[in-house]
Amino acid sequence: MGAPASTNIRGADYPQILADHRVIFKTKAPDAQKVQIDLGKKYDMVKDAEGYWNVTTDSIGEGFHYYSLIIDGVAVADPASQTFYGMGRMASGIEIPFMGDRYYALSNVPHGDIRIKNYYSTVTNSWRQMYIYTPPGYDENQGEKYPVLYILHGGGEDETGWAKQGKANLILDNLIADKKAKPMLIVMPDANIGGGGFNSGGIENGMKMFEKEMKQAIIPFVEKNYRVKTDAASRALAGLSMGGLHTLYTGINNTDMFSYLGVFSSGWILPMMDKTANAQYAFLKENADKINTNLKAFWISEGGPEDIAYKNGQIMLGKLDELKIKHTYYQYPGGHTWPVWRNDLYNFAPLLFK
Amino acid sequence: MGAPASTNIRGADYPQILADHRVIFKTKAPDAQKVQIDLGKKYDMVKDAEGYWNVTTDSIGEGFHYYSLIIDGVAVADPASQTFYGMGRMASGIEIPFMGDRYYALSNVPHGDIRIKNYYSTVTNSWRQMYIYTPPGYDENQGEKYPVLYILHGGGEDETGWAKQGKANLILDNLIADKKAKPMLIVMPDANIGGGGFNSGGIENGMKMFEKEMKQAIIPFVEKNYRVKTDAASRALAGLSMGGLHTLYTGINNTDMFSYLGVFSSGWILPMMDKTANAQYAFLKENADKINTNLKAFWISEGGPEDIAYKNGQIMLGKLDELKIKHTYYQYPGGHTWPVWRNDLYNFAPLLFK
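YS: structure for the whole thing
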């Protein structure tokens, strides 16, 4: 007998998490021929006499994981769980309790707000949305201006990712309460733009468009509407996976605007992005002194060798060494997943705005 | 050939809405035996040679509608659409364009924020969440205090309902821009509490607990953390369906705290709630003068005779006449659905805080 996951919808008894973090799934589908749970690994469920399908998984790592219910071959969200925009659709998520440091727990400390903001972009000529974390005290301390971390989701995700899957607000609430991080705004834009995806040059066009969106739409909107500092020393940019590529592009090209860069589970994808990567390496070579002077932190991380971005990341790290670009490397096990990215934010945020 | 719905996930070509508001659904499920779309009415889909299931529905009314994809008997969210917490789970939604007054459109007017707030309730002894709309200018006009509309979702929904399905922020942005409504905060609490549901006295216990939660947790939290006016003339309470019952209970019992009540698609459910209803009617009778003096508006609405709450609502209206309780009745066709409740808010908000 396990405990219902915190990601279950209200009143749902399953999925249940056992003490050893195996998970029991149970779904009613009397007329289905085959039902599976897909957590990266696929588990076949077994039908009982009452038409419920059951399975107990292997032990699952701490934190947030996407999963799907597969009914007769169709991957859908499990009606028993909350949904999160990921994998390019509304996907089920399951939160496995973390027994270590409770750094992303909802605890009894002052809490900031998450704000949902619509803005009109003159770059895309459309309404877009961003999520913004304002730290505890933002409403009260009217005389104070704050630095800003701009942080980007990955491919198949959107502006809700860092707030919902990432728990960025709780991580910062806790760090700020412990005086480990400065009070800051976190701006979570929609990083899907232009071609998007990795096909036929789409990503390169997408990176150029996102740089424009950041410089002409997002940053001006934030600096007009919130009490924030507007010098480069008070701006950081970070992102995971596809968001890490945006950070490598927009961040490296604009070190006069950002003093801190965080690249989580990312790296130029070779040979698919040879053209862009080579142009960026040439830019790094030509501007090494300026970049090394401007950046107070160039922080690169991977989710261990099991991270799908690990290999490209290692190649990039070698290149940065070769080009004498100062950087820090950090590694946390867990692969290309949100538990790793939460931990990245937890370790990156304390370095900022000192 | 129709247009993809605005509720489709990014890049999804289906569902498509035709000019006459029939909807084309298309889902890949080569191994499924039977696939249906449930929009209240169930539509059988037909499989084509490539394993896609297709159907074109009847013409669907304007605005937001919940729907399910049913795969071999299992009702799930359609992977092609955004999900919304409703029907007690994450459900698919489809938005049918409104050709009339664009009162809930995202238009070029000043926009307020939606804020997501965690708070610790000493009533439930747990962390709970509310959504709060702050109007345009709230951050800038530090000298100004605002009135507050507390507004409640229905059964099987939660604090996200009025923001997501209801577009309460856009309705108010537009009304405020047109000077048809006063700038106000809208507080959208989680109205699920205690027993919940309508079984074995659960709803009565739930109503008592919600009254306590409002008075001891929600209102004090809002009045401590936001620049709001704290007199009864600056507080309104409204709700739909189950939220309308909470409004009838908490609102009528506390007309010294709320000057405006809005009851959308609701009414005491007879004979299921005889005990509570009779107690409330007795309270109304004893306190008719006080209630009539305190309330500046007691606004009751139904979604036409097709609304499942219509019959109980009519009985209640008769009772209110009999007891000489002043009230206003409004009716908008569409049944027990979000297009009706959006329209209710659009018509109720201009009456407030004059």
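YS: worth flagging: Chain B has a mean pLDDT of 95.
IM: good catch. Also Chain B is about 25% helix and 30% strand.
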